[in-house]
Each structure stands twice: as C-alpha cells, then as structure tokens.
C-alpha cells in the first residue's frame, strides 16, 4: 500500500536509534496511510494540548487499534471501521492546517513498539502552523530539529 510498509520500517529504524529523522518525515509524506472516519470526519484524539490525526500503515494496524478501543470500552460492538486512504503529505500540508489548532499525526498508536508521533513543528508541518515557529517568530533556515 503506497509506501506504508516502508514507513513502518523507517519508524522501526528510528525507534532503534537509526536513520535520519528527515527521511522518516519524507516517508510519511510519500506513504498512503489509513485514517479512521467517524461522523464524516477524520478520527482524531487530543493529548498534551495537540490534536492528533490517527493514521495507520495498514489494515492490520487499524484492526489492532479497533480491538484496543473495544477492550477499553470505546466503540464497543463496532463491527467495521470506515477509513480514508490518504497520502501523508495531504495530512501534513492540508488537513493539519485546516484543523485550526495545534495538530500532528500519530501513526500506529495501538502498537507500543511501532508507534510514532509527528508533532506540529517546523520541518514536519507548514511553518505557519508549527508551534515552534509561533513561539520563536519567523522560521529560521534549517530543517527537522
């Protein structure tokens, strides 16, 4: 599926302390990920003052999330989860800014050893919605910190 397997591999590398974080962001941008849809909108969660778009690298990762939600008492009895397949670049460049609040992308959140957060900072989301750019003023040259 559109590079999502490669994204999962890059996440595993970063969690092991290997690879370049910029490569990981680039892989998310290229990947097609699955995002659950609820009541006509993308499924998000709020944590630490950030709205997180929950994305999954494949249907198995989404199914693990659905099972975990059921076990936690959320969405009990829900048979199937509707989802959208979106390019990571669209999430970061279009959907995050449209939310109007600090927002990032959380990938494979039901997989404790495979989850990765892409926070709303410069080098990941557009500078005009990056929380570090807002705190420091105009964006400086550079990349992912």
Short recap of the structure:
This protein has 5 helices and 7 strands, in the order ααββββαβαββα. The chain has helices spanning 4-15, 21-30, 59-71, 88-99, 131-136, and strands at 32-38, 41-42, 44-47, 50-55, 83-87, 103-107, 116-118.
Q: How would you characterize the overall build of this protein?
A:
The chain is of the alpha+beta class and 145 residues long. Helix content is 37%, strand content 22%. It has five helices and seven strands. The protein has helices spanning 4-15, 21-30, 59-71, 88-99, 131-136, and strands spanning 32-38, 41-42, 44-47, 50-55, 83-87, 103-107, 116-118. β1 (32-38) and β2 (41-42) form a beta hairpin. α1 (4-15) packs antiparallel against α2 (21-30) and α2 crosses α4. The radius of gyration is 15 Å and the shape is globular.
Arrangement of strands in the largest sheet: 3-4-6-7
* Helix fraction by DSSP (H/I, runs of at least 4): 25-40%
SSE order, one letter for each helix or strand: HHEEEEHEHEEH
Note poorly predicted spans.
139-145
Total helical elements: 5
Main pleated-sheet profile: 4 strands, mixed
Straight-line N-to-C gap: 29 Å
Sum up the overall morphology in one term: globular
Question: What is the subunit arrangement here?
Answer: single chain
